[in-house]
Design goal:
- The structure holds 2 protein chains of 2 kinds.
- By secondary structure, chain A is an alpha+beta fold.
- Chain A has one domain: OB fold (Dihydrolipoamide Acetyltransferase, E2P) (Beta Barrel), CATH 2.40.50.100.
- Chain A has 4 helices and 9 strands; from the N terminus they run E-E-E-H-E-E-E-E-E-H-H-E-H.
- In chain A, strand 1 and strand 2 form a beta hairpin.
- The two termini of chain A are about 15 Å apart.
- Among the domains of chain B are: about 150 residues, Probable tRNA modification gtpase trme, domain 1 (Gyrase A, domain 2); about 80 residues, Alpha-Beta Plaits (2-Layer Sandwich), CATH 3.30.70.
- Helix content of chain B is about 20%, strand content about 30%.
- In chain B, the strands form 4 sheets. In chain B, strands 11-12-13-10-4-14 form a 6-stranded mixed β-sheet. A 6-stranded antiparallel beta barrel of chain B has the order 15-18-17-16-19-20. In chain B, strands 6-7-8-5-9 form a 5-stranded antiparallel β-sheet.
- Classes of the chains: A alpha+beta, B alpha+beta.
Amino acid sequence: MYPEDLRYNKEHEWVRRENGRARIGITHYAQEELGDVVFVDLPEPGSTFQAGEAFAAVESVKAVSDIFAPVSGRVVEVNEALADRPELINEDPYGEGWIAVFEMDDPSELDGLLDAEGYRKMVEG
Amino acid sequence: MTDSAAGRTPKRTPLYDEHVAAGARMIEFAGFAMPVEYSGIIAEHKTVRSAAGLFDLSHMGEFSVSGPGAAAFMEWAVTNKVANMKEGQARYAVICKPDGGIVDDVVVYRRADDFLIVANAANIEKDVAWLDYLRRSWPGEGGPPVNPEDVVIRDLSDETALIAIQGPRSEAVLARLTGADLSAVRPFRFVEDRVAGHRALISRTGYTGEDGFELYIAPEAAVPLWRALLEAGGPDGLVPVGLGARDTLRLEMRFPLYGNDIDETTTPLEAGLDFVVKFDKEGFVGKEALERQRDQGVPRRLVGFKLEGRGIPRQGYPLFAGGREVGRVTSGSMSPSLGEPVGMGYVEAACAEPGTLLEMEMRGRRIPARVVEGRFVER
């Protein structure tokens, strides 16, 4: 539920560091809260976002949720598979359901995010 | 939402504990704690279309109108004809304000001694106040041609629970629990009989587009009947279904939802509900305003549309035609049956023809959308 190798923000997004890049998705808890995901609005590759800025939107049957950039950077890759299979976010939120990869402006921003234990405490109280 | 903001705890239906025990996700809707989904909206939706689903609708409002003036009062209060109904008949109708705006959309049941009005949960207090105001008004001041003393309006909402079973397997499942001849209960007809030993008004009605029944029962019968139905229907695939799928099921049928697609600022003619407005009736609240609108032409119409690009229509998104804003989305979702994004919205009458190309603005982008005729899903 809370993979140890990831960092988390308070908006229920995760980041996996891959050298200078950050792979980003939403957590197991977030996908459960959303319910069936039916559409993912992906950012344009090449676009840049500041940490905290909405860079994507995930829509369930009932609701639209903005996805906020956990770190600042430039989008270098988006998960095209989500266009046809948005349910990958429900089925495998930490794996095939990833949303985008950012080239980070400042990898030290990761230090400001929660670790698995910190995120678990936030979710479970 | 507004109720919790006002500091009120949401009301619970008699089935609240059943929902929680079944692992339902609970939300607040119209002041009630209601299940929005159990196993998942898409799976529940598809089960209703292919087998059957069980819904707790105990939040809805029920009012009884009785007395020697009841029929004339009802004929005045709603736009459809209801005075000519025979016992055992039900009819869809709207209650309008004098300006033609919709107070509520309801189903009216003709029982032996009264009319039963089934109303939207969010409108219970408003409807009762409106109907009582009408009752007290005299002809000439907008009131019905009835002595106020001859009409008795009672709010039965708290003493009535409502369970719906919807889907092609509904009759087979329900038949195992009742001696009533369900095959003789045609659509929009009802009988009063026992189901699993509990007295029930058994009505062949619903809000999903599927065959099915709605069971009006006493609150104490709700839990045993709910359990009996789930047990009897298990082999047929019957599962509990939440409000999430109820919304997508009705959207595929283009049934309007009060608060989204219709409200006091919209008229039944704009909403395409002309079939429940009977201009040949002597008089009813809103008749003059609606006649005027009929003669002058409606300024806007509620249309159904499909997106022709990626996205999902949501309430409030602007709609454009030829680069000009012509309306707004009132309901939208991914249709679980079609796997396509569908929506409803009001557009200027000139843009309401099926085939018209619109654009929907979503997060700053314009997505092409096509006005379509009729239901999104044929049943």
